[in-house]
Amino acid sequence: MDHSKDAIKYIEENSDKYIDISHKIWGYAELSLKEYKSAALYTEALRAEGFDVSENLGGIPTAFSGSFGSGKPVIGVLAEFDALSGLSQKAGLTCREPLDGQSATDSGHGCGHNMLGAASFGAACAIKNYLKQSGHSGTVIFYGCPGEEGGAAKAFLAREGVWKSLDAAITWHPGDTNEVTTGTCNSCIQVLYKFHGVAAHAAGNPEMGRSALDAVELMNTGVQYLREHMKSDCRIHYAITNAGGASPNVVQPEAHVLYMVRSVAVEDSVALQARVDKIAEGAALMTETTYERIFVDGTANTVPNSVLEKLMYEKLLEVGVPEYTEEEYAFAEALKKTYPSNGLLPGLGAQKDAEIARQVSEMSDNGNKALNDFVLPFYHGDDFSPGSTDVGDVSWLTPTVQFNTACEPSWVPGHSWQIVSCGASSIGDKGMLYAARVLALAGIDLFEKPEILEAAKAEFRVKAAKGYTCPIPPDAVPYVIE
């Protein structure tokens, strides 16, 4: 029996179901840890497919899993489904236009998580069908992981040891290329500081007031001076989420600022975060205000696994990229004109390897193709990406792999309205289904070829030898940013 052909056929026969899920979640566009409709849709769909569903994982209302099978190996398929604020956008347009009845400040799927979850669901269903038909020993678990954009459910679940039970975890992410993800990324910690002061008439009796906004501004100034005295690979970002109101003649009694601290190693992020905490304390002392320190989330850097990366690359080639229509190419071209082009060749490998750069130049028309309709050459390395993801926390506890498929035009900006426009378009649908097939075939190989799994585990034991440092404090609970 050709299990690969059966899996691809299964996904093709059920493709409308996965597209429908993707489009519905695109329409829900729920923010981190508020994905109640999305979670309900998935848990209902999992039960209908015969999965054993567990909800409220780690005490997180929108975290869940669906398990099928028994025994070893246990393969986890990771899914995400949260959106971003300020990105409401109609699908399939090449101009900025929020959905009817919404404004540009409403939410939208600017990271493509509607597609991410739908493809992972399709793959888990195909693997379930393989286990059922073949009678092979093993378990597939679909994990609904909320709050990737600001909640880090995977890290909270890592703190609870959830991922240790897996033999491997597989996932993907919508992108502008068809390639395997490699290297590492930044760890990250988010903390919200809520300063509390005393209101007063700013002209009549200013001496009676204690400005929370002054505290926020002094904290921000203090952090600016800190930048000279931190490691070169560290990053600090902030957003004033509450400036205290719109009346300048009132001494602001409340002001909030959200900080994000990044570094490659979790230990460095924790140390830098402690210095930011001291600056907050100093700002409160200077202004005679008080403050609350609220831990929001934290993530670890990723641990790459070359064995699993090679497996995913083989499956990207085996499945083959989708075919596109003239209208889809024209749409990609038009959308690409709405943002600046950086003139680089697509893919990490082209920036690091001369021979790969030569191949990619030919494939991409020297980087001028608007739609990357090819698989990038295989590249594995310990290179660094400045972003962060809670997939990193999974990768410290079990062998983990990610890849991208092209669901958007080349070099489209991340977290943009252009990505939202693609998220419920035919280009997005085709990239999502491509990812489902690749995930399914790779997952089946991990059941059928134990030598691959053993090699992946051997590599994992070496690369993760120092052990996992969880960025989530023992007493922290998931925090929903309002």
Given helix and strand content, the structural type is: alpha/beta
H/E element string? HHHEEEHEHEEEEEHEEHEHHHHEHEEHHH
Number of helices: 15
CATH superfamily of the largest domain: Zn peptidases
The outline comes out as: globular
Largest sheet entry: 6 strands, mixed
Distance between the termini: 52 Å
Strand residues, percent: 15-25%
Over the alpha carbons, how many angstroms does the gyration radius reach?
23 Å
Q: In CATH terms, what is the fold-level topology of the largest domain? A: Aminopeptidase
Which architecture name of the largest domain does CATH use? 3-Layer(aba) Sandwich
Top-tier CATH class of the largest domain: Alpha Beta
Mean pLDDT: 96
Percent helix range = 40-55%
Strand order of the largest sheet: 1-2-4-3-5-14
Number of strands: 15
Low-confidence stretches: none
**Count of separate structural domains:** 2
